[in-house]
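To close the section, here is one more complete example, presented without commentary so you can practise reading it yourself. The ligand is iron/sulfur cluster.
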Amino acid sequence: MFCFQCQEAAGNKGCTKGGVCGKKPDTARLQDLLIYASKGLSEVTTKLRNEGKEVPADVDHLITLNLFTTITNANFDNDVFYDRIQMTLNVKADLLSQLSNKEGLSEAALWTSDRSEFEEKAKSPEVGVLSTADEDKRSLRELITYGLKGLAAYMKHANVLGFDDKEVNIFMQATLAKLLDDSLTVDDLVALTLETGKVGVSGMALLDKANTSTYGNPQITKVNIGVGKNPGILVSGHDLGDLEQLLKQTEGTGVDVYTHSEMLPAHYYPHLKKYKHLIGNYGNAWWKQKEEFEAFNGPILLTTNCLVPPKDTYKDRLFTTGSAGYPGCKHIPGATGSEKDFSEIIELAKKCQPPKEIETGEIVGGFAHEQVFALADKVVEAVKSGAIKKFFVMAGCDGRAKTRDYYTEFAKALPEDTVILTAGCAKYRYNKLNLGDIGGIPRVLDAGQCNDSYSLALIALKLKEVFELEDINELPLAFNIAWYEQKAVIVLLALLYLGVKNIHLGPTLPAFLSPNVGKVLVENFGISGVGTVEDDLKIFLG
Ligand code: FSO
Ligand code: SF4
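Output:
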């Protein structure tokens, strides 16, 4: 196996003997084969469209879910990958029969096989990251692939709520097909990377529309981090649609529902916070699952990544759904947007002890774009009076690396006239520090999930407009972003497309950036890694 798609890539080079994330070599190879099959299918759909033929939305959804399923820590179940590869090949065979001109199709587009051959095929040199020999082309192809995986996650979340964007699907598939095309030069791939960021913005805008029109605009909300007396179900991951269905199905059963990690922002939505048995948020970021899931006592529903391979002590009460999966854990089925049956989880919860209290108190969030726009006068006044000197976008991911303590220390060391804008599980590094407020504006403004990073871009653009600036980079705004998996990659590409410069990215720069590709990012966008808190503060505050 060779995988270097996330921040935990072994030695910051790549995992070869098994993933630091717990992914086994055979699973890694099957994931690569699923990507290979998805690229082949995308070449066929793209050619069909070029012939003026329609591609059904089901095929778009199959491709997005394929990509999403291979995101770090989403799915560890080989059976899922066997099934998805087979499904992809079946759909492709059907579409190939509709294609009039099959000339020039790639090996991936023409590949047909059955299950018994997948294992061998997955080991062949044309499959996987190392199939591209040139390190710069490999770096760019993977940068684009990971961006598309992140975008696929956003699209899937929008699809669940009944929203879709044909243009985004067409772009994703045309791009996947281009990644099979050896005639593309490094310059072509650089251009395609930036275009991916542009379409990433469209995907993020679509998800924002899906979330806010379904659940209302997030509002300032205090979220309880203690526990109640009833048994509970803990919901993690990012899928608000799953959470809503579970809330409906648990109403009046005496079972409470808690959020974990990236599900915390669900509390900010008016249509979700109306459920009285949505009690609070339990625990912290994804990587603390082992202790926190154990202490929770009740069933846990994982709706997306990030899943840590579970301990036996709670494996029998861990359920997955959607893109998430783990061998031996019960998976709740249900296609995109369909009604799911969570009764087994609810029945199990009734037999469980209430959660053990691990924290008490409240955290405040809900500062997505509309809520911040409502406070715009106050914010502008604070900037004009000098009460707020600078905003720091510290969005992104958390992770178990010790070096991520940097973000806690950085937040603590920031001067009191600065405000942190955050989204994603990165917030758990500083959202319980009680950093106070500036004239009633909290110093940590949480816009939501990493999926809501779009809000931060809108806030920055709004500030640019209010202060009548030409360029977003003239704002008193700095970017110190933590990344872990591929959704952070599409956020990064989207920010680059929006013209944001001098982003600091940590705790390490991606292993998949070759020295030359890294150089392009440094020279054109001023991207840099992180240093010590002291040195970085000097750089940021001049
Ligand atoms: Fe975190 Fe995991 Fe949201 Fe990621 S839970 S790390 S970027 O999946 O998705 O922030
Ligand atoms: Fe390694 Fe990350 Fe790939 Fe897992 S997802 S195998 S930790 S690079």
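Once you have examined the tokens, check your reading against these statements. Residues 3-6, 8-9, 15, 19-21, 23, 28, 72 surround iron/sulfur cluster (ligand 2) (CB under 6 Å). Residues 408 and 429 are 5 Å apart (CA to CA).
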